[in-house]
Amino acid sequence: MSIIGVGLLGGSIGLAVKSAAMPCRVVGYGHRRSTLDKALASGAIDEAADGLAEAVKGADFVILCTPVGSFRQNLKDIAPALAEGAVVTDVGSTKRSVVRAAAELLPKHAKFVGSHPMAGSEKRGVDFARADLFAGARCILTPDASTDRDALASVESFWQALGMTTTRLSPDEHDRLVCDISHLPHALAASLVSMQDDAALPLAGKGFLDATRIAGGDGALWRDIFLDNRDHLATSVNHFRAALDELLALLDPARADELAKWLDAASARRAALLAQKLKEMNPD
Q1: Which residue segments constitute the domains of the chain, with CATH numbers given?
Q2: In whole angstroms, what is the distance from residue 79 CA to residue 71 CA?
Q3: CA-CA distance, 88 to 268, in Å (whole number)?
Q4: 212/206 Cα distance (integer angstroms)
Q5: For the stretch 84-94, what's the b/e string if a residue is b when 16 or more beta carbons lie within 10 angstroms of its beta carbon?
Q6: Mean pLDDT score across all residues of the chain
Q7: Tens digits of per-residue pLDDT, 20-51?
Q8: Where are the beta strands (DSSP E) in 101-153?
Q9: What's the CA gap between 116 and 1, in Å, rounded?
Q10: Residues 13, 18: Cα–Cα separation, whole Å
Q11: By percentage, how much of the chain surpasses pLDDT 70?
């Protein structure tokens, strides 16, 4: 098994594989030798490769864990070295571009399945990798008409073995829906921090820090996600503008009861979502 990019997600995958006692040798590749050394020391990988071709040589399962903006070059670099029947997947937050790139660049004897484990943190790096990062979370698989069914089943089984619940969506449906619940919230958190008066920030309490936690993510990584999914993000921003316009209209003392109902409806919807998530994480 080969992990390309041994950071938070790649390192956590390696640790989770070991925790699940999967019978495989994990080879890791990354740009920084210091990161690879940390991954080796933590047990996230068994071997560090000096290059992409070396990392995937002989591997039956390859996972791309680099930023979205690197996927195309990664696929181009590993394509000549992939073994017959190798299954390639990824952990990217957008899916249309990587599915298209894989279809274009990978050899016919290798099988690609897009996947997106909905787990992570605003922190980055193998230092924060955890074996239980994926336990109880959801992984979205994004097959299209050309996806090999056996490879799809193999990737689905892999994430389930790490404790995840799996869902299948088309690449476009993934990018549209995940934009609303992941990409837009990050954009809003960053905007909320950016618009603050300098005099207000020292007054901020836990609520503000909770609401803006994800704004602490890596700027280059999120830049790539926003640009790769810019059409859906633009639509999501416009939908949010409409929600703010609705709120502005309710800021009329004559509509106080409607404002309370609007707030209560949002509270109830969040409570239902929280209950659903808790049930998924603790099915018994």
Answers
A1: 2-169 (3.40.50.720), 173-250 (1.10.3660.10)
A2: 12
A3: 41
A4: 10
A5: eebbbbbbbbb
A6: 94
A7: 988 899 999 998 899 999 999 999 999 999 89
A8: 111-113, 115-117, 138-141
A9: 18
A10: 9
A11: 99
